[in-house]
Structures are given as C-alpha cells and as structure tokens.
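ARCHIVE CARD
CATEGORY: sequence design from structure
SOURCE FIELD: tokenized fold
FIELD CONTENT:
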C-alpha cells in the first residue's frame, strides 16, 4: 500500500492541516517492510486569504497524487477538507510526531486500512491517535 505522510522535514509531521505541508513523503508499506518511494512537493496554490474547506485546495492536493497510486494519507491534523479528501484516500490521524513510528502503526493496521479503502467514497477517516 502506498502511503503519503504530511511533512516539512521528512522526519516529523507538520502541526498544520494536511494540505499545508511543504512535502508529502510517499512510502510503500507492507506487513513486513516499508520502503521510501519519493518526496512530492506541495505545489498547490495559496490564496491571499486563508479559506478553510476551499474546494480548490482539496482538488489541488488530490491532483498531486493523481498518478501515484496512493491509497492512504497520514497527518496529525486535517482541516475541513477531510470530507473531500477521504473520497479519494483513506485519511489517518496520528498523534505521534515521528513518521517512522507511524509507519509501524500503519503496518499493524493494514487490514483495517484496506477494509476502509474498499468502502470507496463512503469511507471514513481512521483515528489512530490512541494507539
């Protein structure tokens, strides 16, 4: 499963909304291993005024992953656009700061993530904050 993590430095999550990250580090995560695939720069346009739940922002973030086969996105914080983004991806909320620790949590929950993916546009986000 390909998973994109919201980060500014490749080690920790950003403290802002998923769509505000400088980068999305993409990993292939299997039950027994994980492999860094690539870093995608967030090239979505920022408006002069911050508009929460801006559909253009959500569409821009989704388009970054268009040809990447990403099924899951992970962050500490999602904004109101999570309603739009989860139609295309399984959205996972984490409470730890370290992306490497989160990779293990994703590995331990691959079945639940896959089950949520199969729901299509009716999927909900997964809150793995309490693990």
């Amino acid at each position: 499963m390909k998973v994109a993590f919201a980060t500014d430095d490749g080690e920790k999550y950003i403290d802002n909304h998923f769509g505000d990250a400088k980068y999305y580090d993409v990993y292939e995560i299997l039950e027994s291993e994980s492999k860094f695939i690539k870093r995608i720069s967030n090239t979505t346009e920022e408006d002069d005024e911050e508009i929460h739940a801006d559909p253009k922002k959500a569409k821009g973030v989704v388009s970054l992953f268009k040809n990447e086969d990403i099924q899951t996105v992970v962050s500490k914080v999602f904004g109101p656009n999570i309603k739009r983004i989860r139609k295309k991806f399984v959205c996972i909320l984490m409470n730890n700061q370290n992306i490497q620790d989160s990779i293990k949590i994703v590995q331990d929950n691959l079945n639940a993530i896959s089950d949520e993916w199969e729901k299509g546009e009716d999927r909900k986000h997964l809150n793995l904050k309490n693990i």
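CARD ANNOTATION: DSSP finds four helices and six strands in the chain. The CA atoms of residues 8 and 22 lie 5 Å apart.
SHELF: design records, drawer C
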